[in-house]
Amino acid sequence: MSNSRLEEIRKVRLEKVKKLRELEINPYPSKVDGKRQEVKEARESEGKEVAIAGRIMGWREHGNMVFADLKDETETIQLWFQKNTLVDSFKILKNVDIGDFLYIKGEVVKTKAGELTVNVSDFQLLTKAIRPLPSTWHGIKDEELRYRQRYVDLIIHDELKDLFRKKAIFWQSIRDFMISKGFLEVETPVLEVSAGGADANPFVTHHEALDIELYLRISMGELWQKRLMVAGFEKTFEVGRQFRNEGVSREHLQDYSQMEFYWAYANYEDSMGLVEELYKKVAEKTFNTLKFKVGEFEVDLSNKWEKIDYCTTIKEKLGVDIKNASAGELRNKLKELRVVFKGDEDKGRLIDLLWKQVRKDIAGPVFLVGHPVEVSPLAKRMDNNEDFVERYQVILAGSEMGNGYSELNDPVDQEDRFKVQQEMRDKGDTDAQMHDEDFVRALEFGMPPVTGFGVSERLFSFLADLPIRETVLFPLLRPEK
Fold first, then answer.
1. pTM of the predicted protein model
2. pLDDT digits 0-9 by tens, 133-189
3. pLDDT tens figures, 410-434
């Protein structure tokens, strides 16, 4: 709709607001004059008097009668306004438009066409809409406008509302599962003096009262939850928002929800069993199926989740032996694959870039194991080979859908790895991890064997087979010009 046409409609509707006030009708009352039922309940009440409220979504005038469609969160029902029934109040309908909210009283009847309809005996205007709704048929075609005016997108697309109801079930089912397994839900700081627990570039903010720079967390309290393991808690989890100052893509957001759990006296093998059970339970509860079409992939979560080895898979797919290859050889392979990179990355970053090329063709679900220590600064080394760590990732439809490991609890080893990460940051690697002296001190008090795992809302978006921004109520956008 052109801006001039929109302004014309707004002007007409503002004039209707003025007329309503002249009729001593408040176009924005603070309450409903009576009790209210859901439209869904009203549709099951043929022959009975009902009282409902909702938004007008359709409007059809026929002389001394008006038919309209009223919609609340549960259902839609037809309304029937008759002049001989409403008498004086019928003239108010001249100031009612699609988009307005009404409170309706009347008997539920069935028309000759067999459509359930409320024969209106009384009504109250609850809200006068000034802007017109887009056509429910054509909707909003511009993607950015849909995201910017998500409230309108949700008005006209019931399937979008259903998506976010499923997303609520997704997170609730994760909480229910973790609690059923004896885990305690905790809350850890969102603002941190040092951002830890992941390889990511944090957002920076300033604390006025303390006059210090702080970071928005980049993990779901990983280093905090491990401090709780030091403190004597044995099973904790957290669901919340975390923030990473990185690029926008089909799979990535800058702020998003994640769940992480930490489990004492267990290792990554125990964790894999729990995670497989978790994913199956959550998928079944949320989508009522374990079989999914994700892009070009057919994914069946009910299959046995096999393990694949990190180094072996890369060698099979790319012909590169990352155990013995030099950094120069890895860079040459990346150039051959036309992967864009800076050129000064350390070996761990180069290996990770190669792996990201390999995983694109893996349907899964599988557990990726056998990670080199260079790509896992917080995971425990394997007893039989200290060049590798006890870590796993869930690979599904060509992407990472969860990350877990046996947590490093050797304070000396952790201190050494933090120093390496800090050196990388000092050289300009903004994704490298920060040195957290207090966390090392906590480990020096002793942390039992612990396994941890994290999964983000990316899993929901993949199972829904949608870009992740489609599964966010209000995606981040640049300010309007």
1. 0.88
2. 987 555 566 778 888 899 899 998 999 999 999 999 999 999 999 999 999 999 999
3. 999 888 888 887 787 777 777 677 7
Domains located in the chain, CATH noted: 3-133 (2.40.50.140), 156-305+364-471 (3.30.930.10)
**Three-class DSSP labels, the chain:** CCHHHHHHHHHHHHHHHHHHHHCCCCCCCCCCCCCCECHHHHCCCCCCEEEEEEEEEEEEEECCEEEEEEECCCCEEEEEEEHHHHHHHHHHHHHCCCCCEEEEEEEEEECCCCCEEEEEEEEEEEECCCCCCCCCCCCCCCHHHHHHCHHHHHHHCHHHHHHHHHHHHHHHHHHHHHHHCCCEECCCCCEECCCCCCCCCCCEEEECCCCEEEEECCCCCHHHHHHHHHHCCCEEEEEEEEECCCCCCCCCCCEEEEEEEEEECCCHHHHHHHHHHHHHHHHHHHHCCCEEEECCEEEECCCCCEEEEHHHHHHHHHCCCCCCCCHHHHHHHHHHCCCCCCCCCCHHHHHHHHHHHHHHHCCCCEEEECCEHHHCCCECEECCEEEEECEEEEEECCEEEEEEEEECCCHHHHHHHHHHHHHHHHCCCCCCCCCCHHHHHHHHCCCCCEEEEEEECHHHHHHCCCCHHHHCCCCCCCCCC
